[in-house]
Amino acid sequence: MSLVRRFRNLFQREDVNREIDAELQAHIDMYVDDKMRQGLSHAVARREALLRFGNPTSTRERVTAADTTLSLGRFWADLRYAGRQLLKSPGFSVTAILSIAIGIGANTAIFSSMDAVVLRPLAVPAMDRVLTVVEHQERTGDDNVALANYEDWVHRSRSFEELSVRDGVDMSLTGAGDAAHVHAEFASSDFFRVLRVQPLLGRLFVADECTAGRDTVAVLSYGFWQRRFASDPSVLARTIELDQRNYTIIGVLPKSVQYPSIGELFLPFAPTPQQLANRSDHEYLVEGRLREGVTVQQAQADLRSIATQLAETYPATNRGWTIHAEPLLDGVNGPLTPLYYRLLMGATLFVLLIVCANVANLQFARGIGRRSEIAMRTALGASRMRILRQLLTENILLSLIGAGGGLIFGWLYLRLTLVFMPERVARHMSGWSNISLNGRAFAFSLVLALLAGLVSGLAPALEALRINLSDQLKAGSRSTIGASRRRWLRNIFAMAQISLAVALVIGAALMAKGMNAQLHIADTYAPEKVLTFGVALPEKRYDKKSQVAWYANSLAKLRSLPGVTHAVITNALPYSDYGWNREFQIENRPVMPGKDQNALNLVVDPGYFSAFHIALLDGRGFNPGDSLQSTPVAIVSRRFVAQYFPGQNPIGHRIHMGRTDTHDPWVTIVGIADEAKYTLWDQNQYSVVYVDAAQLPSPTTSYALMTDGDPLALAEPARKALASIDPTLPLDSVLTYRHVLNDQLIGLMYAAGMIALDALIALFLAAIGIFGVMANVVGEQTREIGVRLAMGARREDVLRMILARASRLTGIGLGTGLVLAFLLARMVANLLRGVRPDDPLVFIGIATAIALIAVASSWIPARRASRVDPLQALRSE
Amino acid sequence: MPKTDLQGTLDLLVLKTLAHNGALHGYGIVQHIQSASNELLSVEEGSLYPALHRMEQSGWIDAEWALTDTNRRAKYYKLTARGRKQLQQAEERFDQLVKGVRAVLRYA
Q1: At which of A69, A93, A115 does a domain end?
Q2: Which of A46, A170, A606, A828 qualifies as a FRET site for A235, CA 20 to 30 Å off?
Q3: Cβ contact B57–A66 (<8 Å)
Q4: What's the pLDDT at B2?
Q5: Is the domain of A505 the same as that of A373?
Q6: pLDDT tens digits for A318-334?
């Protein structure tokens, strides 16, 4: 290929030249040979040959040119020239490269993280064809799938290559270190087929093993294998005990597929005939892989028609149910994480824009000093294209070096984000452990670098070409020809920087304020003085009676620990976004069709209300008289009364929690409690029905221990106290309440923190920008200032003149920035709860702060202007 | 009008020479054109070698070092398939040019 050959020739110039010389020499020699054969003497023949041949050097040059005519040669020369130019102004180069490195580094880091978590969290081939399928009821929305319905889908649907079913269950693990709760997924063997996942170690279970009796094998998730077994490759064939049953470990899943993210173990799902016939327990999760060419809509329509048939055949259980299918990717992270990432990526690209504006500004400043260089080159015959290309090459070189630095900066930035993410939160993000600076990130930074080089270089380069040759050569390097236009462009860049910075800083401040409000939302509970942990009583060993006994015993033990002021249980803490939202019926009141009737069902002990400052508004609280033997009672929240008993007294009425077909008892309302909020992100407002753990115990619950001292110091005594009742029972997530709340907010904290960092960088760059512009204005106008001073202007006037100019720039930048910020804030507020777009305090505060920073950064140049010595200024021109 | 110029004519002459003679070195090409044109045409070395190298880079001709009859090392050129196609097109273009120029001369 000739292109390859030319490229090669480029780097083997010496060889090429030698070969051409040899060829031309051979020509001359043959000519001499012929002439001598015709009778001429050697000397005469040689003279004639050389005369005829002409200048050998020029011929060789032209032949060489034919061998390397490709712009590559010029590009190489441009690159070397650019390198020399950059070395000549190290101050400029270092500033530009550093700011590009920061801009590209931050972008690369955020992109890598986003790539791993949002764009491709799972290494699942053709992931767009993998769907999650749920059942959907008009009244209550999406729900899990009933197994008999799933079986019918498998048999009747034609849209899927495979469908799989699974059920997540908490189990207690023994026989591998401390007893602990683990999250196991009972899955059909097709689950692995749907994901097309291959084991990292060992094998995966097969359909044959999904039958009762043969189902005692376990596959570990990568994260669990790492945490619990220290990545021990000899883990295969080991036996572990789950809920008092032995399982043999047969395989480990790869790091690149951690789905579902909470799944620690995968066990074969061997359904019983009763389960297979059940159409009312909506308990299972379904994933499926579409056939080639089938769309999500077609698959959904297919399943919906099956659902319609089922509703006709089984009206009692299936009427009103339809199906909703969505791509797996949509469900992997939930709605907030991708949102944060998009927000962050946007903000970080903003920073890169500011960097570009900054570099462009620096280039403008440098362009002034280079005008005579460019004029000289033009005079010597360089075309505009040629010079433009050379200037752009310089910018791209700058950006590429910056991108190199950016990769280092990005690596640091990533390390920082990884270090601050608590493992217990990261575990719930499928792609988190895959975050790294990979080839895609590298390509991304390269593309950004080239774009940044072009964006920041084009305007200054075009401007640099816009010179009047003869004027320029006549006037010398320090004149200010065309200065007004140039200054106008530079002002635009400086103003753009300020306005982008204003928008970013205000956005960050609003988010930080929103986050702060969320962080302090639970302060009335003094969450840093509360220890929380979870307990799950295995139902095989604990019947209702022993559950009640356990709670009574454990609470008594915990309350007697020194330092504990309150010890209470509840199955959902306030602001935990947790809880069991159940349907219910009111006695002697038929449920209106289409009327949604549900409430959070919380199981608490009598002390819960006083510990969490929940006032009793009417009736009575729970008391020791409420027991398994007495009539079950309930306390309802104020919202419950407003919603279901408006204007009436609910006390004495009976309600039944759960669907009509469940065996839960009817409970009598005995009291009304004030509101407490159980949601943080969930926007729904729930009514609450509290029942007494001594009457209707729940096998899983959270404990809250309140103390005046350090709550974590209570962890060990509490563990010991409970172990004295049942040593095999593990405690889950032993954390302060503050930690629990913060974990809920960690996404927002991350986003706010990163955006604050972006905003700081933006502010810093904008300050540099203003400084640069004003320093140059002063530099260019030294002569004018000298004249003014010589004509009698006072130094204060000069100072005021320069500051006024800076203020004008800042003012316009601030104005556009505020508009931009307002639009941005409204967008962010729509997306993020807790963020108010119309916070005048933030807007005014930030605007003032930035104005001060801008004026401060123009103070030094202004000072210098006022100190100009008129004599020297006039002489130096 | 077919695009043609002097350089195109040189290319044509070289390609035709190579098509006629097989492999030939630069000096041989000069000699051949001179004798084949009854000494009417003389190719300058200063133009020939850049043209040869350009055509080599374009893949019209291939080059190889070999010994001459008189035992000198010389670079021999020969036509490639692409060069053959190029020659055909160049000949057609040249015919057109000659026809065109003739017509004009006759008219005047």
Answers
A1: A69
A2: A170
A3: yes
A4: 39
A5: yes
A6: 888 889 998 888 877 77
Section B78-94 average pLDDT: 90
Tokens linked to A656: 């039944």
Helix (H, G, I), strand (E, B), or coil: what is residue A663? Answer: coil
Domain end (from A312, A332, A352): A332
d(CA A60, CA A58): 5
Closest listed residue to residue A140, CA positions, set A539, A658, A562: A658
Question: Residues of B near A (CB-CB distance < 8 A)?
Answer: 25-27, 44-46, 49-51, 53-54, 57-59, 68, 70, 72-75
- Say yes or no: A300 and A403 in one domain: no
Is the separation of the CB atoms in A328 and A296 below 8 Å?
no
Give residue A477's pLDDT band: very low, low, confident or very high (50, 70, 90).
very low
Same domain flag for A353 and A308: no
Q: Report CA Rg, chain A.
A: 38
Are B70 and A33 inside 8 Å of each other by CB?
A: yes
Please compute the mean of the pLDDT values over residues A384-390 and round it to a whole number. 78
Compute how many other C-beta atoms are within 10 angstroms of the C-beta atom of residue A661: 8
pTM, two decimal places:
0.68
Residues A347 and A231 in one domain: no
Domains identified in chain A, total number: 4
Beta-carbon pairs below 8 A across chains A and B: 67
Q: Are residues A417 and A506 in the same domain?
A: yes
Cα–Cα distance for residue pair A132/A135, rounded to 1 Å: 10
Residue numbers of the domain that contains A282: 127-332
Tokens of B22: 């097989």
Residue A86 in any domain: the answer is no
Whether A250 and A359 map to the same domain: the answer is no
Residues 6 or more apart whose CB falls under 8 angstroms from that of A762 comprise A350, A351, A354, A500, A501, A504, A505
Are the Cβ atoms of A53 and B46 closer than 8 angstroms? yes
Beta strands A633-637 and A581-586 are unpaired
Residues facing A586 on adjacent strands: A589, A655
The model's confidence at residue A473, banded by pLDDT at 50, 70 and 90, is: low
DSSP readout, chain B?
-----HHHHHHHHHHHHHHHHSSEEHHHHHHHHHHHTTTS----HHHHHHHHHHHHHHTSEEEEEEE-TTS-EEEEEEE-HHHHHHHHHHHHHHHHHHHHHHHHHHH-
Positive or negative, the Cα torsion across B36, B38, B42, B45? positive
Q: How far is CA A128 from CA A119, A124, A144, in A?
A: 11, 9, 21
Contacts of A54 in chain B (CB under 8 A): 44-46
